Amino acid sequence: MTILENNELHLWSAVLTLDEQQEIHYLTYLSEDEKYRADRFRTPQLRQRFIAARGILRELLGKYLSCPPSDIVFAYGEHGKPSLQGANSARLNFNIAHSHDMAVYGFTIGRLVGVDIEKVDDHYKEAIAKRYFTPEENAKLSRLAEPQRIQAFYCIWAYKEALMKAIGKGLSYPIAQFSVFFDNKCHLFLENINWHLETFAVCEGYASAFAVEEGIKKICYTEHHRFREK
Ligand SMILES: CC(C)(COP(=O)(O)OP(=O)(O)OC[C@H]1O[C@@H](n2cnc3c(N)ncnc32)[C@H](O)[C@@H]1OP(=O)(O)O)[C@@H](O)C(=O)NCCC(=O)NCCS
What we know:
By secondary structure, the protein is an alpha+beta fold. The chain folds into 2 domains: about 15-110, CATH 3.90.470.20; about 110-215, CATH 3.90.470.20. Helices cover about 35% and strands about 30% of the residues. It has a 4-stranded mixed beta sheet, with helices on one face. A 4-stranded antiparallel beta sheet has the order 6-9-8-7. A hairpin with a 2-residue loop joins strand 4 (about 90-100) and strand 5 (about 100-110). Helix 1 packs across helix 3 (about 45-65) and helix 2 runs antiparallel to helix 3. The longest helix has 22 residues, at about 45-65. The chain is globular. Bound molecules: coenzyme A. Coenzyme A binds near residues 157 and 170. Coenzyme A binds near residues 82 and 97.
């Protein structure tokens, strides 16, 4: 069993490439609707990444809740945010994000949490910045030299997406209407909640961040090691 205390945030990362045996193993954890979703991906690689991301999510939740991964039942919010259904959910909140072959996960007791991971491109995505970032953020970005500008772009993007995901409203949230401070930590008051945003390093070539309700005293980050048949 993994213990998560009230004021802790647990972050995990996982690689989503599986061998055949691992894929069969993680598939056994999935519910019928998840298997249906898996089968609708365009390529075997996308299907496998989904199976890995959900399988590992179930495995981690099973460790926090002391139950088999396949017993976990998800409920979905109005905008698709998954949460735990059932009396045994123990106020355990979680969020997951994936990009290419990497996933990140965040877990708290009772506090809203959102995570994001983005594979970093080597060119600046001006159209996205203009559409989703505030004029103030765009003005600050335009004053930076190229490598720092790309880094700052991904920091803003990951902060905004993690925050939207913590709030649970996804794309419906007017993210171009609030600014974040792009440093490796940022504090923000939004939707009557004080938020703590922070970047965390997962691996080379990816940018990741979390958004969590203020009050976290301890943050633990772990790399997930997958099931292996002996
Ligand atoms: C879910 C959403 C919030 C992010 O999607 P994404 O970037 O494609 O994917 P991520 O990897 O970050 O997150 C996907 C996971 O978030 C979770 N999720 C889905 N809807 C969610 C919501 N409303 N709130 C929180 N989490 C959500 C799911 O677990 C999903 O993974 P799974 O269904 O495969 O298990 C998407 O609906 C969205 O609104 N994206 C906004 C994209 C955007 O505007 N980007 C510019 C930001 S500046």
